[in-house]
Structure formats: C-alpha cells, structure tokens
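Hi V.,

Quick status before I head out on leave. The structure for the redesign project is tokenized and pasted below; the design run finished overnight.
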C-alpha cells in the first residue's frame, strides 16, 4: 500500500496539472458513480489527507479516493499513450493540455466537500500536513501512548494515531529506534517514534525515491525493509507477519540491531 509521501507527491503533481482549470473530459468508471458528470467543472485543488486523495471542485464537491495496494494516478499529454491497460481505468480528468488517468482506484466517493470528515475525520494528525508542529506532534504522541501494551509496529500503522505511515516506514522507524516491531509502545521512546515518522516521510515527500538511509544507491536505500541482510551489521534479517488477517502485514527486523 502506498505510503503517505507517495500520496503527497501524487497530489502535488495532480494539483499542478489540474487546479484552476476546467475539465474538457471527465469520466468516472465506477458503478456507483456512473451518472456523475465532471466535464465543464473546474478543479479548485488536489489535497492529500494521510493516504487519502481529495480532488476538490468549485461549488463544493469532492472526488475522494484511496489508492489501496495497486491504485495510481498518471499524467499524460493529450495524445500520450497510457502505460497501463485501459480496463484498469477508473477515472479520466482532462484539461486542454493534460490528462490525469486513475488506474485501479477501488475506493471512489463523490460527496460535498463539507462532508469530507465522514471519510477522513477518524484520521490522526497528518505527518505531511503543512500545519504540522508541536501541537500536532503532541496529539500524535498522546494517541500513540494511549495503549502502552500495543506492539509498536501495529501502532505506527494505525492511521487513527497519525496518518501517513505504511509498512516501509513502520519497519525502518522500528530499526532506527533499535527495537523489534513487536516491542510494546510503553517500552520505547514514543516521541522519538513520532519524530522519526515525520522526518522520514518529509525527507522523501518531493521525489519518488524512498530512502531511509539518506542514500539513493540501489541496494542501500533501506536498513532492513525487504532485505535479506541488515545494511548496518550484515546479519540475516528476520521476516515475519504482524497483525491479524485480513489486516496483517509482513514485517522485517534485525535480531542483532533490534533486540
């Protein structure tokens, strides 16, 4: 599932391409939204909310979507050839000079902008919000420490605590804390966990490459995530599963660096 920085960058690019422009083509290929007509509407802005993507239109309407595991938005010139098959297309938003195509968008909602809280009101502080500051950090810390017995790996991925962390950053934050993902929240430096989550997402927000080591060299971008050997000590990385189906996730940690 895309991390918060991936959604952030997608929204930034869509906003640059669509905001303030009238759609000359607007299609939503979704059974519940087949009657929605977007042609002629003006996009006011495209904003992220954690892993949620909000395309806001003038006159108070929003197209909400969540990328899930395989969703993506691509931008093309008007005559550009799509890089994914047409049967995966769920939305087409075209201006005179750009075409935004949404592929495999499983979650699509058309709603009043004033009603967005019904879909995103449960989210914790957004780690990539322009309003992030001490108050948001303290609120995320309060939510994170509310259940001190919960495993830190599960808590970090709970979007109700703070929005934006996915499996990659959960794994790497735990590594940088020097603790196993199964360590209870009450036994780790919770404020450091919040700050690391924010810093890693912000570091990668403006480019598609995701590095937690500050290196973009292939094979050196992550400490333990999806690795066979720990980048720091070279010992074998242990792979397992955390959480209960259907929400369980693969997890990685180095037994030596993360006791």
């Amino acid at each position: 599932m895309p991390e918060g920085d991936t959604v952030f960058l997608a929204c930034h690019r869509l906003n640059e391409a669509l905001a303030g422009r009238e759609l000359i083509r607007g299609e939503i290929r979704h059974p519940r939204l087949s009657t929605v007509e977007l042609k002629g509407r003006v996009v006011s802005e495209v904003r992220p909310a954690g892993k949620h993507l909000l395309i806001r239109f003038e006159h108070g309407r929003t197209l909400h979507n969540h990328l899930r595991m395989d969703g993506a938005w691509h931008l093309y010139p008007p005559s550009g050839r799509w890089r994914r098959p047409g049967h995966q297309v769920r939305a087409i938003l075209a201006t005179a000079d750009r075409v935004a195509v949404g592929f495999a968008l499983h979650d699509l909602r058309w709603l009043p902008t004033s009603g967005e809280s019904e879909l995103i009101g449960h989210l914790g502080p957004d780690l990539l919000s322009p309003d992030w500051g001490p108050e948001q950090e303290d609120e995320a810390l309060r939510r994170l420490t509310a259940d001190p017995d919960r495993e830190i790996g599960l808590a970090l991925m709970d979007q109700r605590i703070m929005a934006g962390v996915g499996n990659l950053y959960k794994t790497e934050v735990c590594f940088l804390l020097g603790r196993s993902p199964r360590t209870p929240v009450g036994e780790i430096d919770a404020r450091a966990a919040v700050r690391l989550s924010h810093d890693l997402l912000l570091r990668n927000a403006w480019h598609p490459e995701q590095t937690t080591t500050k290196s973009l060299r292939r094979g050196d971008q992550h400490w333990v995530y999806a690795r066979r050997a720990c980048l720091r000590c070279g010992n074998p990385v242990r792979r397992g599963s955390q959480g209960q189906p259907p929400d369980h996730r693969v997890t990685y940690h180095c037994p030596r660096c993360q006791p």
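Above is the designed sequence. The mean pLDDT is 95.

G. will cover questions while I'm gone.

Best,
W.
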